[in-house]
Amino acid sequence: MLYRPYVKADTRNLFFTSGQLPIIPNQNDFPSSFCDQAKAVLNNLLKLVEAEGGDKNSFIKITIYLNDLDNFQEFNQIYSDFFAGFSVPARTCIEVSRLPREAQIEAEAIFNVVQ
User: Fold this and answer.
1) Eight-state DSSP code of residue 97
2) Mean pLDDT, to the nearest integer, of 99-104?
3) Where are the domains of the chain?
4) Strand partners, 24
5) pTM
6) From 7, 45, 48, 68, which residue has the greatest number of CB atoms within 10 Å?
């Protein structure tokens, strides 16, 4: 298998996700606006965390790939709203020239779930 949504480290309860695109569940499509794509990416990451019994406090680090760094301020607000009331994880934001399927954003995360 060439693609895995995440990998669990055997020594701890650490998980490392693959890049997540802003795919709308059950539609295999993206929202059209950057704002909606950003929210979809974060929610897709959260679904992976919740599937392992975690929540927003489980995130350790998120790496964000934007195809246009001019969207950084808008993303910053979306990120802030998403983690309101929770511990905000470390973050890196990188501009890239192109993303799969012409997405405007992709994200990967490291998270820990205490069992």
Assistant:
1) S
2) 96
3) 7-112
4) 29
5) 0.90
6) 45
